[in-house]
Write a structure and sequence with these properties.
- It is built from 9 helices and 7 strands.
- It is α/β, with parallel strands linked by helices.
- It has a single domain, classed as NAD(P)-binding Rossmann-like Domain (Rossmann fold).
- The protein has a 7-stranded parallel β-sheet with strand order 3-2-1-4-5-6-7, sandwiched between helices.
- Helix 1 (16-27) packs parallel to helix 2 (39-50) and helix 1 (16-27) crosses helix 7.
- The chain is globular.
Length: 273
């Protein structure tokens, strides 16, 4: 899909990967609604684009895990630009350290998974009628592998990958494209959440990601996302080594689990715990 002339919604667009994707879309000729729980951050992303691309983007402060707010986002896009062509389900939270409390699981499930399901329920019927649409899910390499430190993050990202796969299998022959972004380390506040948690397993979670491969900039990831959308490629791996890790996991699950336990132990030992 060529994004020039298309209308897109980017959730979690107030910075990080979402902000970079929104900017890259606008520069490629798309019209974008930038949504974020922090409306001021979304507005700042749009303001930075306004001088060069006046009227190409609008900012909305919204909890994009709320069905009513997603409906409002879609309506705003249609009013400003026209029907939604691309939906970037990018908003995410790291979730609690360890097993966490039930209320923290509810939040993590809502943002990392249910937000995708709720958006698809609203968009897919119209896309089927029109014969086209594009759903881009931001999951994580944790959705293919696992995340040391946070059970909720690992589980919800696995589920996000599974939901994206299901969308592609079910509607891929009816004009609906699906891509799933699964990066390792990207330099965003989310990456440093565990490091700043003060919890040994949380700090190990950040080190697990930063020591596993290069930490990329959001702009670099956005460029790769645009290339994948242009190719209509399902799996977007900014860190190609993730595919090798995934293959090793599938080839010998017990050996992989044992290796991950040893890796976790080394990470904890390096912090003196």
């Amino acid at each position: 899909m060529q994004v020039a002339g298309k209308n897109a919604i980017v959730t979690g667009g107030g910075g990080g990967i979402g902000g970079a994707i929104a900017a890259r879309l606008v520069r490629a000729g798309a019209r974008v609604v930038v949504a974020d729980l922090n409306g001021g951050a979304a507005a700042a992303v749009v303001a930075a684009l306004e001088a060069e691309f006046p009227g190409a983007a609008v900012a909305v402060g919204a909890d994009v895990s709320d069905t009513a707010r997603i409906e409002e986002l879609i309506a705003r896009t249609e009013a400003e630009f026209g029907p939604v062509d691309l939906y970037f389900a990018n908003a995410g939270v790291i979730g609690p350290v360890g097993l966490g409390a039930e209320k923290d699981w509810e939040t993590t499930l809502d943002v990392n998974l249910n937000a995708h399901i709720r958006a698809a329920r609203l968009l897919v019927p119209g896309w089927l009628e029109r014969g086209e649409g594009y759903f881009i899910s931001t999951a994580s390499a944790a959705g293919l592998l696992t995340q040391i430190g946070s059970a909720a993050y690992s589980v919800t990202k696995h589920a996000a990958v599974g939901f994206a796969e299901w969308l592609s299998v079910t509607y891929g022959d009816q004009g609906i494209r699906v891509s799933c972004l699964c990066p390792m380390g990207v330099e965003t506040p989310l990456l440093r959440a565990g490091e700043n948690s003060g919890d040994a397993i949380g700090m190990a979670a950040t080190r697990a990601v930063t020591s596993a491969g290069a930490v990329l900039t959001p702009d670099a990831v956005a460029e790769l996302v645009m290339a994948a959308v242009d190719d209509e490629r399902f799996l977007i791996l900014p860190h190609p080594e993730v595919l090798d890790m995934y293959r090793r996991k599938g080839a010998d699950y017990d050996r992989w689990l044992s290796g991950m336990r040893h890796y976790q132990a080394r990470l904890l030992d390096s912090d003196g715990h």
